[in-house]
Amino acid sequence: MTGNVFDVLMERGFIRQTTHEEEIRKLFGEESVTFYIGFDPTADSLHVGHFMQVIIMMWMQKYGHTPVVLVGDGTTMVGDPSGRSDMRRLMTLEEIAANGKRFVKLFERFIEFGGTRPDGRPAEPGKAILANNADWLLKLNYVDFIRDIGRHFSVNNMLRAECFKSRMEKGLSFLEFNYMLMQSYDFLELYRRHGCKMQFGGDDQWSNIIFGVDLIRRELGEQAYGMTFALLTTSEGNKMGKTQAGALWLDPAKTSPYDFYQYWRNVEDADVRTCLSMLTFLPMEEVEGLSALKDAEINRAKEALAYEVTKLVHGEAEAVKAQEAARALFGAPGGGGMANVPTSELDRARLAGEGIGLVALMREAGIVSSNGDGFRAIQQGGVTLNGEKVTDPKKTLAEADFPDGSMLIKKGKKTYCRVVLVE
Fold first, then answer.
1. Range 343-422: architecture per CATH
2. What is the pLDDT of residue 333?
3. Distant-in-sequence, close-in-space partners of 292: CB < 8 Å, separation ≥ 6
4. CB-based contacts of 254: which residues, under 8 Å, 6+ apart?
5. Is residue 255 within 8 Å of 27, Cβ to Cβ?
6. Are 88 and 79 in contact (CB under 8 A)?
7. 340-344: long-range contacts at Cβ-Cβ below 8 A with a sequence spacing of 24 or more?
8. How far apart are CA 302 and CA 271, in angstroms?
């Protein structure tokens, strides 16, 4: 692609802070820059916050730059205190390694990887390099590390870093205090191994990044660079990607493509432009046009957002299914019937005898998180069965509730599930 990716990232609202803005922009325009982003595998799937970083790597690849995707098995053993009010749960190396492998499978859906030359440089500029910091961090000798690396760090300066300042009142463990040294060492190691000149990260990583840039200068006498990006937040400043069921995951086994689609279809009007510009590859002219829609027309923009993001994460076929299901449920033109609506099966035999309660079925189908949640939803008038409001929290289901062998449960305005009887 022609042009400078720095300008693209700036126009789309990604860039927050840079160590050397003019130099970075010039580098992007003159050579294929090798940069890295780190991902600590603290869970068994990437979530939508990670996807922001993935999108940035995809943009960089489009313009010929080389991502180093760093899986942080080593740093996860310690836990990043940034943005945390308490210490992370310590995980075993086996847990971390299993999560890291799942991360890699997801990365391979978005990023084009290639090999390296004997000197560690990318074999093909623009093809990503996969690295894992367990390869060097777990082999370090502690005394050698604090003599060679720790001497470059001022404790006074570290305590002024935002990631530590916010923890001082509640307590910061010495274990977490080491995280900044380890992340800085990652940058140094990737500079040595792969000629990696830049580190990218969310805006909460600024302190860690600038300490890494400084370590490379002190240890090697070389210039490195850093850049941070906006976190994905609502217009009110709250983190996006949180649902009633928890995080919005990229793994379809944890968040279904339909639920993923519905999350973006239901964002607030004020957040449409941010999401379209940061989470899709739609041209900015189209983003501006869609974002300018008002009142009921803004739903067209939300539908475009949901479709584009779901297509990127789950593929076009799943995006089409999710869109058709949503249109069918909400009566919009282009609905493809009920075939793609989230569906749960119920053994017909369970209706015999004492039967099954509606609340229990809602819990099994994932519509509510607990029986208490289900009872409250009914008592508050928020549940309908085949279009009829349910008033009895203790309702037991019968064959008559399944015309044509199925029923449609709705909770609130936007949560649906179709339950089909099976023999």
1. Roll (3.10)
2. 41
3. none
4. 44, 45
5. no
6. yes
7. 340/258, 341/258, 341/408, 341/416, 341/417, 341/418, 342/256, 342/258, 342/259, 342/416, 342/417, 342/418, 343/417, 343/418, 343/419, 343/420, 344/417, 344/418, 344/419, 344/420
8. 10
What is the CATH superfamily name and number for domain 242-330? Answer: Tyrosyl-Transfer RNA Synthetase (1.10.240.10)
Q: How far apart are CA 332 and CA 306, in angstroms?
A: 15
The rounded distance, in Å, linking the Cα atoms of 94 and 421 is 41
Nearby residues of 153 by Cβ (< 8 Å), 6 or more positions away: 180, 181, 184, 211, 215
**Rg of the Cα atoms in the chain:** 25
Q: Considering only residues 46 and 118, tell me which one the structure prediction assigns the higher pLDDT.
A: 46
Task: Tell me the whole-structure pTM to 2 decimals.
Answer: 0.80
Q: Residue 128 in contact with residue 69, Cβ under 8 Å?
A: yes
What are the beta bridge partners of residue 132? 71
CA contacts within 13 A on the Cβ side of 242: 6
Q: What is the mean pLDDT of residues 291-305?
A: 93
How far out from the chain centre does Cα 293 lie? 27
Q: Domain ranges in the chain?
A: 5-229, 242-330, 343-422
Are 368 and 362 spatial neighbours (Cβ–Cβ below 8 Å)?
yes
In order, the DSSP letters of 381-395 are T-EEETTEE---TT-
Instruction: At 111, give phi and psi (nearest 5°).
Output: -115, 140
For residue range 144-161, list pLDDT tens digits in order. Answer: 998 999 888 888 887 777
DSSP E strands, 323-371: 343-347
Domain 5-229 = CATH 3.40.50.620: yes
One-character DSSP codes across 152-213: G--HHHHHTSHHHHTTTTT---HHHHTHHHHHHHHHHHHHHHH---EEEEEGGGHHHHHHHH
Q: At what angle do helices 298-314 and 257-265 cross, to 10 degrees?
A: 150
List the structure tokens of 414: 């936007």
Q: How many helices (H) and strands (E) does the chain have?
A: 19, 13
CA pair distance 93, 133, nearest whole angstrom: 13
